[in-house]
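Batch queue: ligand-bound targets. Current item pairs a single chain with fe (ii) ion. No template structures supplied; prediction is de novo from sequence plus SMILES. Inputs echoed for audit trail.
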Amino acid sequence: MAASSEIAHRELDGTDAEVLVYSYYRDAELRGSNLLYRLLRILKDDASQIALSEHLCDETRHAWLWTERIQELGKAPVPITDGYQVRIGKRCGVPRHPVDLLALTVVVEQRALKRYQEHLKRADTPDRTLEVLRSVSKDEGWHIDWVRQKAREIASAEGSPERYDEAVERYRAIDKEVWEELEGIERSWTEPR
Ligand SMILES: [Fe+2]
Ligand SMILES: [Fe+2]
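Prediction returned. Tokens below.
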């Protein structure tokens, strides 16, 4: 299968469209794991190291579940070069301050959860895909909670508790722009013609 940008410009059959959407999900999970590796190097306290290890384990499992789902369709994952995280990165780079990095993680986790919840509501979704969507969604709640709590704790300890909310607001605006682009692209693959 060709790269995603080429595929977007030609007609897709149903399986190709499914594989492409799952490849975008997989890409977001893998690139989200990259943010966690950065956090592992920055947050040295015991609780963060433990939470990050479990969190990373979840995200790589999510990437595997999408890979497995793609394999079940007799295909391989499509390399994604213009996915959600790449578009986010082009707009805001990778934050250096831990509070900013944690705030960005919260925003991208919330987007993943919304994307999966929206997909769960689609009428024609195959049972196996529903199973994967439910499995990946159930982990996102604790991911968001612990990352948000840690960000607030660091921001308060540094005497600037407002830093977290300001960062979330900044990244939400970027996420909204990126999502408006991607939602239209995804819809063009999956809507009946
Ligand atoms: Fe995930
Ligand atoms: Fe997550």
